[in-house]
Design a protein that fits this description.
Elements (H helix, E strand, L loop, with lengths): L3 E7 L5 H11 L6 E4 L12 H7 L10 H12 L4 E3 L5 H4 L5 E3 L4 E5 L7 H6 L2 E6 L2 H13 L6 H20 L8 E4 L5 H17 L1
Length: about 210
Amino acid sequence: MRPILVAITGGTSSGKTTLTRALADEIADLAPLVLSQDAYFRDFSDVPPDEREAARTANRPDAVNWSALVPQLEALKRGDAIVHPAPGTRAAARGDAPVTIGPSAVVLLEGHLVLVDGRVRELADLRVFVDCDVEVRVLRRIQRDTSRTDSSLERSLAWYWRDVLPNNQRFTNLQRTYADLIVPYDRPNPLAARLLAACVRELVRQR
């Protein structure tokens, strides 16, 4: 059986990771494989050191190493296993130990840029956009950032002004037009995961 790929996207702190985990719990009997776009962020080693910090981004399409992500998705759709971390990614640059993962009948891919790339959209059997008011997302983002010991309110706001704000409307919100389903998530929405689980089970049944 050709595996099912579900792509889940949305703005920063919209709740897409939370929804993905809830969906994975709902279909635990199918042993879904969960992939995060963050594992495919570029390491920017190809940029000269004196230009690297200015070029670094997490909110434009060039933040993602698509040449690593797309072939691995294609391999999973063929029913093959893949190895993490992929070369050329931030995870590989920091020396994460290689791990073989997959194959799986269901692959859940989450990230705030995953539907920007047309190849990923074509590979996905179900495309989901997690919707959340920008005011809620800003508060969630600040709360998340400042809860980490290596961050501060000033650092969080500086990054939001520099990278998140100018790129969210331009790239992330545009993905709404590519979605098969738009899920509101500015409040707890336990029904969403159950409904998505039903969709996934139907796709698996049809396959």
